[in-house]
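Q: I'm writing up a methods section and want to include an example of the input and output format. Could you take the sequence below and give the corresponding predicted structure tokens, formatted cleanly so I can copy it straight into the document?
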Amino acid sequence: MEDVAAAKRGNQKIRDMVLSMAVIGGVVALVYTVIPHDEEAEPLKTVDYRVELSLAQRSAPYPVLVPQGLPKEWRPTSVTYRKDEGRAWHLGYLDPQKEYVAVEQSTNDPAKYVPKVTLSAKDTGRTREVGGRTWQVWEGEKYDALVRTDKGATTVVMGTATDERLAEMAAALKAKQPQPKQTPGASQTPQTPQPSQTPQPKQS
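A: Here is the clean output for your methods example:
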């Protein structure tokens, strides 16, 4: 009799557990159905990096590089300039396939800086000509990268994108000059100096 009673109690526990799981599943399904959600929503927003770029241009001892002429499908999603960390410039993008591509520049020691920003990528010993410049090819488990050191800074173009997308970014990089400040209300057209109106002496 005791064995029969124990078996009944065991069956009751299993049944209660199944019923509980069914209730939880129903609640989850209800919440998913009732709460609005957009499966096509973009998780990252496009950023305007003009303020950080202006700061970096005036502070960095090297030409700060930004891409110019990329198709509109390339979207900037992150930007930082850290003066106290080797004058480090960062500009992150999503490429047309929504893969990550970043431009990193710094005056830090490249032997330490490149492995840090690429999460331990390694120099393959190969080079690639991109945009009329020679880049070192680095590869890693997380990120691949194109690397070059010039004018006192190391530039890294890295990400999860394909080699061709990394090269496309590297080829688009230009040192954009800061925009001069415009005085509010100042005329855009220089004024032509007027001839002197000095009175002429009378003729006697």
